# Entry
Amino acid sequence: MDLFLFCPPFASTKGTQQEAFQPHFWAKTATVRRLSAPGRVTRVRRGHFANLPSVGVRLHRAPMSQVGPSVSKLLRLAWPVALARLGIMGMGVVDVMVVGQFAPAELPYQALGWAPINVLTVAGIGLLTGVQVLAARGLGAGQPTEAGAAWRRGLGLSLAAGVLAALLVLGAGEQLLTTFGIAPELARPALRVTHILMLSVPLQLMYVTSALFLEALQRPLAATLAMWSANVINLVLNLILVPKLGAVGSAWCTVGARFSLAAVMLVYIWRLRDAESFGVRRPAAQPSYGALLRVGTAAAISHAAEAGAFSGTTLLAGRQGPDAVAAYQVLLNVLSIVFMVSLGMSSATAVLTADSVGRRDEAGATRASYQGVLLNCGFMVVAALVLLGFSGPISRAYTANLALAATLSSLMWLAALAMVPDGVQVVAASALRARGDAWFPTWSHLVAYVGVMPPLAYWLGEAQGRGVAGLVLAIFWSSVLSSAVLCSRLWWLHLKTLRLEQTREP
# Structure
């Protein structure tokens, strides 16, 4: 029996044998022996397969041990990172739930007050992406002091970004919200929440810098424990302040919890037993601020565009009235909880991909990228099914308003639909940045979340009269576009790298 199978060019050759990683996610790693010259198509017979358009090879049974450890390593790194990201979202969940139970009338103020802060914070987190990527590359290249230098400069960027965020918020004033059609009676109390939350931005970014540094070291557990300890502090403070102060009290709780979080992480890293070997306590020339910004600027623009689009849809919900913005805020909160797990998987994927890039291991980089995307996709499907099965109890946990809970329950299927492509696109984007393709995810996000999502949300939500359902559908279709484009780019980049490697072979 003759078979004709596709196999792209291989990355490297050692003697007469070479190690090949099949780009198909279902294929096994194999050790192959060259049978024909590049450019020939070989008929497959009795264990041989064709290389189109490159090398005919004999397939030997490859032990799954070459793939299994990388999956295990990815999961070991991903679960504490995902828990830490869930902890970040956990503060928001506690804020919404406590305000929803003790001061439900102030949920719109809280939602609108968070909208500009979310954009600025997420942009700052994107700016700090270089800390993780360059620290992991330095470790992979055998230069551990570069990891500490990346952390120190990341702290400087955190403070600078926090000051810039404060200047933007204070300079815009009430027009920050009224420009988008928010009624002044909603904008004024919401802006008080924004001004308080503004104080927490540099604190949150300092924590993120420290967490990214520890993730690059593949020691993420400390950041996870610190985050959940801060969540306990936030919950206790919320229960004390929200019944008296409402949304404003909840904002002060966030500031207090984030202050404790940043302080704990700084002390922990400074006192690491091997801090000296990582260059934590002494300056180093590399990586420079410029190197961090070259990686982080693209991510910052990308993250800001995506967060800005989501905040823009919150403002569209605000134009539909307090009930609509309250319902949409809860749905976004649910989406964000699951999205934090995707961020954890994307971070783990980026660390392992960047480490492989630092070691010049194309097969390892590809393997880490695809495994991250596929594992995360599987988790998103499971999470969507859980959300569908428990939509009623989840809705009632968010609010004491029975009418609002009923509305939420009827819309949960849309949130379940949107979370799958939304999770896929963030992991694919992180994998691309870890491979050095920093700007393509940015342009993709600009097209999907700035060019497509806002007008689609307006058309579906207002022009077509679908309300909150139309806004969530806009998120779904924009995320489908983004995930398809980014996954295609990841595949294309892998094939391009393999072709370049083949041209260097003798």
